[in-house]
Every structure is written in structure tokens, then in C-alpha cells.
Amino acid sequence: MSNAAPTPPAGPSSSSARSSAPASTADAVELLGLVAQLEHTAFVRLAGDCALAPDVEQRLALSRFAAAAVERRDRVLARVAELGADPAASMRQFDDVLTEFDERTQPSSWWERLLKAYVGYGVADDFCRIAAQGLDERSRAVVLEVLDDASHAELAVAELDAAGSGDGVLSSRLALWGRRLVGEALGTVQRLITQRPALERLVAAAAAEPDGAPSDGGNASAAGTTTPNAPAKVFGELTAQHTRRMSRLGLTA
Amino acid sequence: MSNAAPTPPAGPSSSSARSSAPASTADAVELLGLVAQLEHTAFVRLAGDCALAPDVEQRLALSRFAAAAVERRDRVLARVAELGADPAASMRQFDDVLTEFDERTQPSSWWERLLKAYVGYGVADDFCRIAAQGLDERSRAVVLEVLDDASHAELAVAELDAAGSGDGVLSSRLALWGRRLVGEALGTVQRLITQRPALERLVAAAAAEPDGAPSDGGNASAAGTTTPNAPAKVFGELTAQHTRRMSRLGLTA
């Protein structure tokens, strides 16, 4: 149902695609479905954290973050409905988007779990933020607004920072864990782009944007090495954001 | 902190207590804390159901019910704060309120789980609704408003009704399960009243109400048999509501 809209007139990998030529409705619905699924997954994880949290104050905070993720997901799904597509179907196609990532990155402690949420969702959110540059104005606004609400990340930063600052062993373990996480997260993004032409088109459009990350000349498909069409510029941007994120925790990326 | 307010001038088991003489702030905070804890428990359970649900539509519905439970809990906690007490502390004292009930009533199927939620929360909600009659007007309004939002119960009723109507074996199993559940739920209520003088006072005040369940003459403590002070009238009302609830499902109470 979400694939009913026509594909855009420009070729799918056109390196001259600009955000001023917004994505087709079908492409927009696909990215919106991904964002909705990620917010839903955040809800499930936060609710699970809440059930495990030993203290009432943490439980209150985590349950509110979980409820906020539901609200954000539903804002994205409302946009899907506005575009005439089926909200549930838009999410369903990304049911397993994090299954492999989760299998490969089982945290072995509360700190690893916290860093996984911060790094894993950080990369996913950054990817969606970049791809959103290729969307129509209203869809882009919804995605950026939803992803900007990073209150839960602040909690993770505060807790991880406090725990790591006095503990060199924990810090170096977490730094190692962070490198593992970002590797798996970038692999997940790469698979997504390869398997989903709509996301590839949006990312190509974003990479052609002049105001994105340090540009390699505007040619989105020129620098990919492992997969020829994947815009290396986007991976450069994701890696740079990850480094910033880790350094906020005093951890080596 | 929640026990800082003075006890009411009337004796704790006074059978002449009326809702026109509202409970002390400490007693109100205690009932509000119980309601908040029950809503929080509902959130955790609904989020767990959501993580297990096989279908996107069910997941969407359950996550919204879970988020609504957080919102209801927070409305109750806001009233606790208005009364000058500590919201987290008011909940903390009821941390284990359902632990024993849960241990004794482990559902062995999705249907048993659904009926447990409907019956277990039904009894708990009815108890809080009755005890709320003894509260000050504003606290009572908050509790009744929060407990009136029974959208999740409607879902349970629809699913259980559809499943049981064509299946006599399932129906009679669920009828048996319902009797077990209500027995344990009433036992939990009885322990709560015995262990919590504030709740006993509120229930005594409610039992003295002329517009409650069929009255035994307004003497709240006259008819208790297993525990002398427990108002049998309240248990009669809880049992009657349970019977109504089961018959909505076509099940024998």
C-alpha cells in the first residue's frame, strides 16, 4: 500500500538530486516508516529498562521517556496517514530492522546497555536526519522535530559520564564496546541503503546538498568503496557524529 | 514524608465517618499512591504485552494504552504533589502491592493473561473507586476520572468474548481461572485493608455512605467475619462488580 505512489522522474541514483526536488510520496513514506519503527523500538526498550530499574525515580523517568517515544512515533504515523498511506504497513516493512544489530550486540552490563542505546540510536537518528533532507518540507519538519527530542540521550550521557569518569577500566571497556557498536550500526545502515532503493535515493539527494557534511564535490556516489552506490559522504558524517558523541562521554571513538 | 499530615479528629474505625468529612491529607496521599502504583503496574504490563504482540496493529494499540497509563499515573502524582507530599514516596510504599498476587496467579496462556488483567485490575480499580468516596472532593475527582478511562478493558472484553463464545472448553477453563483470580484479588484487598489503617479508614467512610452498595444499615464494621474490622459491605460490592464483569464475557463468576 505504501508503494502505490509513482517513483520520481529523476533516476534513483541521480547525483544531481537536490532537496529542492522532494522525494516521491512512496519514498517519504518509507523513511517515515523507518523513523516510526525506531521510535517504537525505543518505546519497547525504555519500557523494558523501566521494569528493570531498581528505583522509583528512575522508573518514573524511564516510563515518561517511553510514553514520549509513543507520542513521537504517532506524530510520524500521522504524517504517513496525511500522505495517504497505511501507517501500520509503513512500520511493518521495518519490523526486523534492528534484529541482526541486536543479535550481534548483546550488552553484558547496565552500562553496555546504556551505551548501546546512546550509540545505536544515535547512529540511526543521524542517518534518518540526513536522509530527511531529501523529503518534502512538511515530512522533513516532522522527522527533524521528532529526532530533536533527545531528552533520553541526556540521561544516558549523565549516567555514563558519572560512571566512567572515576573508573579507567570501565572507560576503556566502554570505548571498545562503542567501537564495536558503531561498526555494527554502520553495517546496518549500509544494508538498509543497499536493500532499500527509496532510502538510497534520499541519501543520494542528501549527499548532494551543499550545506551537509564536508563535501567531496557534491557527487554522492563517487567515493563509495565497499558498495559502489553508498554515499561515502554520509558514512563520513555518521562517523564524525559518533566521534563527537563518544567524546562527550570522555571516551575514545 | 507522606505521613507528615495529622490524623483525622474522628477515630480511625469510626462507623459514623461520612464522605462529607474528608480524609486527612496523609490518608488521601496513601490512596493516591496506591492508585499511582496500580497505573504504573498497568503501564509495565501493557508494555510487556506490546513487546509480545505478534501484529503491528496490536502493538500500536497496546503501546498507546501503556502511554495512557503513564499519563493517568502522572495525573494522580500531580495531585500528591499538590497536597504537599512526595510523589515518588507515595508510590514506593506500594512497590510490592501485587507481588504476592502475581506469584499466585501466573497465567499459562494469552487468554489467562488477558482475563487476569481484566479481573485483577477490575477488582483493584473497584476497591480504589470505593475508597475514594472518603477523599476530599478534588482528590476523589482525580481518582474517579483516572479509573473511568477503561479503554483497555474494552479491548480485553472484545478479545475474550470473541475467543470464548465459540469454545466451550476455553470458556469453562476461563470461568475457573476467573474464580481463582477474584479469590486472590479479594485476599489482596483484605491484606491491604488490614495492613494500612489509612485505607481502612477510607473504606469505613465509604461503607457508611448511603448511596453505595446495598447497605447493611450504615455500620461499616458490623458484618466482617474473617477480619472483624473489614467492612463486609465493600467485599459484597467488589464481588457484585466481579460477577457483572464476568457475565459481560459470558462467563460464570
Automatic annotation (TrEMBL), chains A, B:
InterPro entries per UniProt: Ferritin-like, Ferritin_actino
Protein's name according to its UniProt entry: Ferritin-like domain-containing protein
Composition skew (Low complexity), residue ranges: 12-22
Chain residue ranges for the region called Disordered: 1-22, 209-231
Domain annotation Ferritin-like: ranges: 28-204
Bias type Pro residues, positions: 1-11
